[in-house]
Amino acid sequence: MYPYPQSVNPAVRSHLDAQAAFFNELSQTMARSVQQVFQLNLQLGQTLLEEATHVGQRMLTMERPAEAMSAAASSAQPATAKLRAYQQQLTQLAADTQVDLTRVTEQHVQDTSRTARTLADEVTRVAAEETDKGMRQQEDAIKNFRDPFQQDAARAAKAGSQPRGNLQSAGDGASKGSMQGAQAQQPTDRNPGQQR
């Protein structure tokens, strides 16, 4: 019906086409009904105007006022009948319009509701896929964030399980050697018995 870009989902396209067809036929039915009402009103107005003109001409040609009043009264009966006929035609037109609207609705509601169900299923499926994708991305991000800390902890645990004796004895030996060297540098020429 209407050209859509390729990126539009087929379920969306079919639902929009069904909606457009429904509203198109609905608007055509309403426009046809409004047009018939206007024609009916136009016919009534034209008929009443013609009769009023005819009665006015008759009243102007009458010589006595009583004759003019009887001519006016005699025209009231046909005008009332025409208004009653107009009311019946208007009622019939409203009933026909209601039947047409019901027919259009019945024709299109099934198709529109079917496409709406298809669209809802498609949206649900896509939403579930996107949710799963988002959850996987979050899990991957958390894993990538957590991995360096776990690797550091594993290295620290591995380093902590190695024997520390070599490192400790080397440190102890260095501190003992520096203490002996400091004692060796102090002057030894003092005797405890000598005083200066």
What's this entry about, in short?
The protein is mainly α.
Describe this structure in words.
With 196 residues, this protein is an all-alpha fold. It has a domain at 9-86. 87% of the residues lie in helices and 0% in strands. It contains three helices and no strands.
Count of helical segments?
A: 3
Can you count the beta strands?
0
Q: How large, in whole angstroms, is the Cα Rg?
A: 52 Å
Structural class: mainly alpha
Tell me the series of helices and strands, N- to C-terminal: HHH
Helices and strands, with pairings:
Layout: H1 10-61, H2 65-161, H3 165-185
Helix pairs in contact: 1-2
List the main descriptive attributes of the protein structure presented here.
196 residues, mainly alpha, 3 helices
